[in-house]
Amino acid sequence: MNTILIIDDQADVRMAAVVALNQIGCHCIEAQGPDEALALLKQTSVNLILLDMNFKLDTTSGEEGLRFLQQLKTQQLTIPVVVMTAWASVDVAVKAMQLGAVDFVEKPWNNIRLISIVQQQLKQQQISHDNACLKAMQPENSDEYIAQSPQMMRLLAQAKRAAQTDASILITGENGTGKSLLAHFIHQHSARKNQRFVSVNIGAIAPSLFESELFGHKKGAFTDAKEDRLGRFEIANGGTLFLDEIATLPLELQSKMLRVLESQEFEVLGSSQTQQANVRIIAATNAEIASSIEQGEFRRDLFFRINTIELHIPPLRERPEDIIALSTHLLAIHSQKYQRKGLVFSAQAQMRLTQYEWPGNVRELSHCIERAVIMSDNNEIMASDLSLTPTSTASSAAFPLVPLEELEKQMILKAIAEFDGNVIAAGDFLGLSKSAIYRRIEKHQLDLKDLDN
To answer: Residue positions of the PTM 4-aspartylphosphate (predicted)?
Structure first.
């Protein structure tokens, strides 16, 4: 369950947000102001912050909200923040986004819009988490992939060449292969690398909000447009705009996307002034667009516009040379995360890793190794710890996916058992404060009597 921290000095505003977000299964915690919020963040892990920009000390400038964002940045708390403001100040919103805010919503808000923004940011956070796992393809403190296979070496060479141009690029590949990571790799090797890289998950945008999300709107442009809003094209101006899941774009909206890609021009909703879209477009899809074109579900001219250069990421099963290098790097990442230093793969485990076909690609590989790190009893990861069945066909593979929530629960129980029931010592081992581990025990409804089983 996602946890949302709502920061507002008005109890009725916080309650309204809680009621709206509870509808989508979010757990909400509340703070009356930035100081209380910072204290909560020292004790509680949250997925997203909903931040009011104006408090009792100053009700117009947004300075208190901006100061809080600066404090998050100083303390290196990388939590997505959606800011709330009742004042028509695009400048404050821009300053907030420069300090790390991911979006903003106007007060009083429309619940559908609030929920849409929160859902999109939570999904983007999940994608970012997946990309962190996929960084096994990328050495630490480097923008180079870990790749040994001829296929990946050719792909990366092509990506670097394409990055030097402003041509539109379409990245294709199965789920979990790292399409968004490759898009960022291209941006980092381009002339726009010092400008913004803005990622948009097209599949997460409601059709009714498409124009507003992409192009922005002016106050009064439609019923719920209480304030001005910046669009993604404007935010990405001068940089790179990554359009993920482009094949999910509804047919009726494809003409609008085609127009801005062809002319590099757009209008903010509610404004007659034409703006220039100085952005480099990278799109990605795991769908077979050719069949969508044949079925009339995707415009052929839009396809030609987005794939001046097409880069295909091969699935992991087609580049077995990369599996051990990726696995070793992922083992180091997850060992550090769970404080399990000195872990290595046994020879049998390495063989099992290379025999499996990885239908979920690098994402599945990361999940598999994370589970092994959590559940293994020794410093050597054995083949049995991987819970993989060797197979010659992906369809017959038997990999029992376990939710990370369940893995966290098992890890806490295992740590408490390891320290003979001493919850505080177990929390210290896991890097959790006293209050944090007790909150997780309560969250998972752990019965410590389970330790006797």
So the answer is: 52
Instruction: For residue 95, give every residue at least 6 positions away whose Cβ sits within 8 Å of its Cβ, in sequence order, or none.
Output: 62, 66
Give residue 353's pLDDT band: very low, low, confident or very high (50, 70, 90): very high
What b-and-e string marks burial along 291-326, b requiring 16 or more CB atoms within 10 Å of the CB?
Answer: ebeeeeebbeebbebbbebbbebbbbeebbebbeeb
Over the stretch 131-160, which tens digit does the pLDDT of each residue have?
544 443 444 444 456 788 999 999 999 999
Higher pLDDT, 140 or 6: 6
pLDDT single digits (tens) 266-305: 888 887 677 888 999 999 998 788 888 988 989 999 999 9
DSSP 393: S
User: Do 261 and 159 sit in the same domain of this protein?
Assistant: yes
Degrees to nearest 5, angle at CA 26 with 399 and 22: 135
Q: Are residues 278 and 357 in the same domain?
A: no
Assess whether 326 and 418 both reside in one domain.
Answer: no
Do 424 and 360 share a structural domain? no
Q: Which domain holds residue 352?
A: 317-397
- Residue 243's H or E segment, with its range, is strand 240-244
Q: What is the DSSP string of 110-140?
A: PHHHHHHHHHHHHHHHHHHHHHHHHGGGS-T
- CA 58, distance to chain mean position in Å, is 33
> Which of 265, 294, 314 is at the close of a domain?
314
State how far the Cα of 365 lies from the Cα of 134, in Å rounded to an integer.
9
Please count the other Cβ atoms lying within 10 Å of the Cβ belonging to residue 407: 17
Bridge partners (DSSP) of residue 31 are 7
- Residue that finishes a domain, picked among 119, 153, 169: 119
Same domain, 283 and 209: yes
Count the domains in the chain.
Answer: 4
pTM listed for this prediction: 0.56
